[in-house]
């Protein structure tokens, strides 16, 4: 690793720390030439997930977009931001553990719906109404009957 202060090509690692989920390694380095210290981070380079949309388009998976969708469903409910983060993280992990990098958007919606159904029925119904494209009151009624 090149020293950012003197451009020396030889630096030494003096301390290494992993984060909680073992995804990022923090390294404290020291340059033997100028004796200055600096920090570097290593993370696994992941292959991007590709979402297959209902209309045939493809787009790169965006965790923030997923979180925003869940957040909208959870407005004015008891579901906290930490639970929303947890759902997004769990869904992404499940997607990455599947074979292949192309994921049907329907699969993502099903995973989120399952998780919301377990923690808050109102958030689940809100999410399902958009995800399943409810068009009339009967669609809501059918889904509510399943919950009851």
Overview of the molecule:
The chain is 43% helix and 20% strand. The chain is built from five helices and six strands. The longest helix has 16 residues, at 81-96. The radius of gyration is 22 Å and the shape is elongated.
Would you summarize the structure shown here?
The protein is α+β, with helices and mostly antiparallel strands and 148 residues long. It has 5 helices and 6 strands, in the order βββββααβααα. Helix 1 (63-73) packs across helix 4.
List the helices and strands and how they pair.
Layout: E1 12-18, E2 24-30, E3 37-43, E4 50-52, E5 58-60, H1 63-73, H2 81-96, E6 102-104, H3 105-119, H4 121-131, H5 137-147
Parallel strand pairs: 4-6
Antiparallel strand pairs: 1-2, 2-3, 4-5
Helix pairs in contact: 1-2, 1-4, 2-3, 3-4
Function: Negatively regulates transcription of bacterial ribonucleotide reductase nrd genes and operons by binding to NrdR-boxes.
Zinc finger (unnamed): 3-34
GO molecular function, one term: zinc ion binding
């Amino acid at each position: 690793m090149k020293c950012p202060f003197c451009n020396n090509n030889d630096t030494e690692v003096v301390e290494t720390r992993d984060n909680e989920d073992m995804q990022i390694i923090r390294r404290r380095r020291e340059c033997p030439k100028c004796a200055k210290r600096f920090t570097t981070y290593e993370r696994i380079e992941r292959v991007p997930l590709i979402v297959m949309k209902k209309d045939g388009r493809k787009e790169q998976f965006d965790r923030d977009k997923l979180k925003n969708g869940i957040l909208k469903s959870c407005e004015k409910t008891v579901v906290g931001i930490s639970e929303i983060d947890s759902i997004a993280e769990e869904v992404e992990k499940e997607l990455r553990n599947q074979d292949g990098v192309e994921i049907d958007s329907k699969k993502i919606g099903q995973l989120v719906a399952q998780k919301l159904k377990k923690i808050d029925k109102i958030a689940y119904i809100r999410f399902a109404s958009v995800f399943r494209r409810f068009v009339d009151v009967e669609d809501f009624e059918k889904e509510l009957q399943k919950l009851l």
